[in-house]
Amino acid sequence: MESLGKDDLAELARLVEVTSDAVALCAKDGTILRVNRQMVSLTLDDREHIVGTDIKDLLFSNAFERAGRHQMPFTLDTRDCSLMLKLPDGSFVPVNVRALEIGHDLLPLGARRAGRILVVIKSMEEQTAHDRQTQRLLSELQAANKRLSGTLSVILSAVGSKDLPTLLDTVLNKLSGALDAGGSTIYIAENGGFKLRGFSKSLANCYVPDFIPYGAGIPTYVLRQSRACRFYVLPATSDDEDLGPASGTFYDMDARTNMRLNVENMPAFKTLIAVPVFFGTQVLGVIELGWMRPCFPRDYDMHVLEVVSDYLSIELMGLVTNARSKRSDELTRSLNRLRDMVYTGSGDLHGMWPRLTSEMTRVLKCRLCPLFFDHIRGRYVLDFDGGSKVNLPGGIDELFFSTVAPAAYVDPLAEVDAKIHRGAWTYTADDLVDVRVVRVDANSRAGRWLALHGLPSQGVFFDAGADFGAEDGASADDADGAEGLMLVEERPHRMFLLLRSASQEPIDDLEYDYLVHLAHDFEMYVQGARKKESEHRIAQTLQAGMRSSLASVPGITSDCLYSSATKQALVGGDFYTLIRLPDDRVVMILGDVSGKGVEAASMSALVKTALSAYAWEGMGPQRMARSLNSMLMGFSRLETFATMFIAKIDLRQGYATYCSAGHPPSMLVHAPRNGVQGDVSTAEIELMSVQSGVVGAFETMSYEAGSFEFSPGDILFMYTDGAIEARDPAGDFFGEQRLRDALLREASSGVDGLCGRMLSTLDTFTASALEDDVAMVALRFDTGRSR
């Protein structure tokens, strides 16, 4: 411009026309005197309208403020000024302005000598758009980098994790931060539905459903779609009367479908992405990522969530399996504790019942509610919280047993309608005979009835059988007093419910197996108690009809005693009998059948009957043992044997033959030679030392016979092995020598009460803890050979 000092104004005008910037020549007061084509194009106006306009009416500050009356909106020192150019339609475009005041010496000769202002304007709209695009791309790059690093961090945090809660907490919080979401949750597929296993910290003060059953809510829908889904969650409006007052909807953005959503299953988000987690074909759960505001989730976020779920499924599978294993171990320990209580207890169900029920409710986190029949009202009554009694609406079978399963419990991978059908889901172990165990579903008749009365609506019905615990038949009115409270809270209940609230997950397969095993144990316990009671009654019958006794025989004074080691059975395997034959002959039999209790007593009755028959046939002791051995060996299923002492005594001759088959040697106490009662110094004991093998063990067993002579006053003492095998607290045997010494001592007092005195000696030695049946027989011969 300085080079144009001597040129005329026309030359200046031609010069500004060739520049690419918009140029305006203004007077000192801002009036536009001349503009070039670029200025006309930039302002989108005619040249005639622009010339004569005040420049201050076209250029405004970035705050859209007009310059004052005597001020310009720009400086006059050629520095860049960022301003806003107003267009005829009232809009603005950003421009860069530089201005220079032209002095008198720069104007051509002959021109008016007033000063002028040269204004150069450059549009910044394209530059601003470029900068905005650059900023947007940079922001997107930063966001992508954040999502990528967050995704990698999530994946790396999942590798090698050993604790499920820590893993889920880390993954969900990092996932929410990486994708700028409002929060995230994960539901694990369990028996009956989806259990909330983790949520991000941002949802700590929000309502998040703890459990969503199959057939309801977003997780079931995602499971059936088997894909990542984007949803809007919409609350119910006044136009949705058909949905009910406590319902809303969720809208699938991709499939463009609406589904009903119960209020208890509504997530904390307005918008969310839900992705199923699969391990192969096995469903592990559903991950939800959501925002608290309505928005449209990006495809990229869905892909990131799918990648995370794929990697997470591998770790989840191991940790879920480990968690199930720990739960299985916990239930097994509890089952063992219950078994110990039942089988090592005294058999008193009243005493054990509080501990049994406490352990069951502890490990299952359930409430136990007894059921009993009210004979006065003729219906079943449920006792809740130890006194709140409610009449059941029907019978047990009608209320708890059916063959229809609700749709909520079908295979989650099956292509079925999501509509929930009415009915009860039942499953019982086929091999249970008397005990019944069945699930109670929240959608069953029983579950709906429980919920209607404000009670926990899901769990298990347990019927321990008619022979278990207390008798059905108490009146509900009885529970009002102290006796009734004992009935409800302390006595064993045949039937009861183990219940959980709707906010808890239903009884899963592990817990149900735990109860089925417990039912088996209860059944075995009841059957065992029933068997013991039956054996006790049989034993009493055997005692009444087959109790060992000795016949009255002239020439013999006898004493006998039997002590059974089995307190429940009053008889056992030891037996004895004295058979009177013609011609002053008798047969004495004392034996011991292997085993104890009723089974041994039954076999001893068989052996005693057979030997009695052989005696009447005139057989000798040796042949009697041989014949009995053949008979017992003929029973192919009989796994028993017997020891015995058989003596055939001739009272006229003072002579006897005997066979000792596997039996401890009997003892013959010869009376004192001086005939003085109580003098043991001259008494002698003769052992029946000829021994043979047991009867009933081997078919080829041979039996030997022995003999002895006796005189008046001699005592034949016979006993079973329980006498010499008795142990003291230190574990020492009583033994044959102690028995001989005790016999010599006690025989001096006579035969009357001799066996009782010998048993007292044994009780003293064992501290009254005999472990085997003991039978003892003493025969004093009042006739015989003279000395």
TrEMBL record:
Instruction: Please list the coiled coil stretches.
Output: none
What Pfam families would the database entry show? GAF (PF01590), SpoIIE (PF07228)
Q: Which GO terms describe its molecular function?
A: phosphatase activity
Alphabetically sorted, this entry's keywords are: Hydrolase
According to the entry, every stretch annotated as the PPM-type phosphatase domain falls at: 557-781
The yes or no answer to whether the keyword Hydrolase is present is yes
Question: SMART domains per the record?
Answer: PP2C_SIG
Could you tell me what this protein is called? Answer: SpoIIE family protein phosphatase
Species this chain originates from: Collinsella acetigenes
